[in-house]
């Protein structure tokens, strides 16, 4: 009598890893915990790297950053209870920034449900409002199936994060391989690229052809949709001046005749046609009030709910930015006159405004004052960037300065938190960017308050040999808030709850095995940046900037008015 063959079995953690591999994920960002270690074991077998950080917020931010850089979803894995709650900020940031990522959280065993197990919390209830999908995995057989479901939900409409909690006994249990549903790579997600209503695209083409003074704002979804080439074709074929924000920065290189930055307010006041691509009418757009009330306004977005929100529009198109812009060019190209020639004067008018604004600010950018004018710091950074430098902004006032001056030279080379305004993304984004694209240089500008939140993961950068250039604009203050307090309550109460110590972050970097340097003279900024580049290490340049100088964007914030 022959012994009956024992069916091959697999654990829940290994099923997670198989599902991650099917999605094309090659790294997870994590902080260890007893609930989740079987996932690590599965990742080893599937060839997925495990990057362990010092704070779960960093793991979630890194997964967000990985998605932005690669175009693939990111993944963070954290333990139950405080591990998951520590990651909430990173998930919320990804939610507002429309970044596809999966957070996997541990959970107590199903056999101990509602018994008060270690680190038991209602994670799904907490995560539901800030994700596109949140669920508990109920059985080991369903692990890979529900992981793939979570990834699919990340791409419904505008992308965003998903969350799964997996009970410890579900992860640790083994089931016959034949009973586990394991979706096949490339067979459980369809293309999400939508062209939009053809009649609406024809109308858009007609509006462009007859426009004398059009302007287009290329927002983050231009990069999300990888629509750079289509956007460039659009502005060049139709001779339309382009402004860029968020991850859309870098779509056009500095110096391109259609690249504008400093004349946006003027353009949005004088234009007869304004096309908003992949940007909501949120606080960054004055809730739509900054657009001329007489202009024809077109909004293109992946998410129906965003189109026409906070402001009436003349034409709304729900679809992929690249497909819509490409189709509009095709529709306009069939006309005898697409209007591009007569818009030459409009571009010249905007260029004159742009030049005057640049020349007015240039003395500040070249200032030799001490403490250092923040404009001088961001000017030096902008001059230092190469075609392959990914720029990251992490902070309040100092990064507001950089938004006016720093111009990434390539698409996908600008990263900022997004509309949640989260401080502390810098090290995590640098980690993800350098991990995903090791041939790229990564430079991150921090406010000293922002770096303080998650700066200990500088050690993770050292440990995993992920060199980057960190620059801290150090004014020993949370200066964006300080300005508002002084403006609202008077200078005598302007230093309440916003003043930091004079911290030598350069010494901190050296202590952790990186490169550190202090700068007090503006003439020393560029040499210090060069030495940081040459060091081949994670680096921090601690630049002392004037605490009594505020960015115009800080002074104009509506919350202070």
UniProtKB/TrEMBL annotation:
In terms of superkingdom, the source organism counts as Bacteria
| Domain (Thiamine pyrophosphate enzyme N-terminal TPP-binding) ranges | 11-120
Q: Which Gene3D superfamilies match?
A: 3.40.50.970, TPP-binding domain
GO biological process terms on file? isoleucine biosynthetic process; L-valine biosynthetic process
The Thiamine pyrophosphate enzyme TPP-binding domain sits at 394-543
Residue intervals of the Thiamine pyrophosphate enzyme central domain? 201-327
Q: Which GO terms describe its cellular component?
A: acetolactate synthase complex
Listed Pfam families: TPP_enzyme_C, TPP_enzyme_M, TPP_enzyme_N
Whether Acyltransferase counts among this entry's keywords is no
Q: Which cofactor does it need?
A: thiamine diphosphate
Q: Name one GO molecular function term.
A: flavin adenine dinucleotide binding
The UniProt similarity line reads:
Belongs to the TPP enzyme family.
Under which name does UniProt file this protein?
A: Acetolactate synthase I/II/III large subunit
């Amino acid at each position: 009598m022959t012994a009956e063959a024992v069916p091959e079995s697999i654990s829940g953690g290994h099923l997670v890893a198989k599902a991650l591999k099917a999605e094309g994920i090659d790294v997870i960002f994590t902080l260890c915990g007893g609930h989740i270690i079987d996932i690590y074991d599965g990742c080893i077998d599937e060839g997925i790297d495990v990057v362990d950080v010092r704070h779960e917020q960093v793991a979630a931010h890194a997964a967000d950053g990985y998605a932005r850089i690669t175009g693939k979803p990111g993944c963070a894995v954290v333990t139950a209870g405080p591990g998951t709650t520590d990651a909430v900020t990173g998930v919320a940031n990804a939610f507002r920034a429309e970044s596809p990522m999966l957070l996997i959280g541990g959970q107590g065993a199903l056999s101990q449900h509602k018994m008060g197990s270690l680190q038991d919390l209602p994670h799904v209830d907490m995560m539901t409002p800030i994700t596109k999908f949140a669920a508990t995995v109920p059985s080991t057989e369903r692990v890979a199936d529900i992981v793939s479901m979570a990834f699919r939900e990340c791409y419904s409409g505008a992308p965003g994060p998903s969350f799964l909690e997996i009970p410890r006994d579900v992860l640790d249990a083994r089931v016959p391989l034949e009973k586990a549903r394991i979706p096949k790579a490339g067979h459980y997600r369809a293309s999400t690229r939508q062209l939009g209503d053809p009649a609406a695209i024809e109308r858009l083409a007609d509006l462009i052809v007859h426009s004398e003074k059009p302007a287009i704002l290329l927002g983050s979804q231009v990069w999300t949709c990888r629509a750079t080439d289509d956007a460039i074709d659009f502005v060049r074929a139709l001779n339309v001046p382009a402004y860029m924000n968020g991850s859309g920065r870098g779509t056009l290189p500095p110096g391109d005749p259609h690249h504008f930055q400093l004349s946006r307010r003027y353009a949005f006041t004088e234009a007869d046609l304004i096309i908003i691509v992949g940007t909501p009418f949120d606080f960054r757009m004055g809730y739509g009030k900054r657009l001329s009330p007489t202009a024809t306004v077109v909004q293109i977005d992946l998410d129906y709910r965003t189109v026409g929100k906070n402001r009436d529009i003349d034409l709304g198109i729900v679809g992929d930015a690249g497909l819509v812009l490409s189709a509009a060019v095709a529709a306009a190209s069939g006309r005898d006159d697409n209007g591009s020639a007569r818009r030459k004067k409009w571009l010249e008018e905007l260029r004159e405004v742009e030049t005057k604004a640049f020349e007015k600010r240039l003395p500040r950018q070249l200032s030799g004052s001490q403490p250092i004018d923040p404009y001088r710091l961001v000017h030096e950074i902008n001059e230092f960037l190469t075609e392959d430098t990914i720029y990251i902004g992490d902070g309040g006032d100092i990064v507001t300065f950089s938004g006016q001056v720093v111009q990434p030279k390539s698409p996908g080379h600008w990263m900022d938190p997004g509309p949640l305004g989260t401080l502390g993304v810098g090290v995590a984004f640098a980690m993800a960017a350098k991990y995903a694209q090791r041939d790229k240089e990564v430079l991150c500008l921090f406010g000293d308050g922002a770096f303080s939140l998650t700066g200990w993961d500088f050690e993770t950068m050292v440990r995993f040999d992920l060199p980057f250039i960190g620059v801290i604009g150090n004014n020993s203050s949370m200066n964006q808030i300080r300005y508002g307090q002084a403006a609202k309550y008077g200078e005598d109460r302007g230093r309440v709850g916003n003043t930091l110590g004079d911290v030598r972050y350069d010494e901190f970097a050296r202590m952790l095995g990186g490169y550190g340097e202090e700068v007090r003279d503006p003439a020393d900024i560029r040499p210090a940046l060069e030495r940081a580049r040459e060091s081949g290490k994670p680096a921090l340049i601690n630049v002392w900037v004037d605490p009594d100088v505020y960015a115009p964007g800080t002074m104009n914030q509506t919350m202070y008015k």
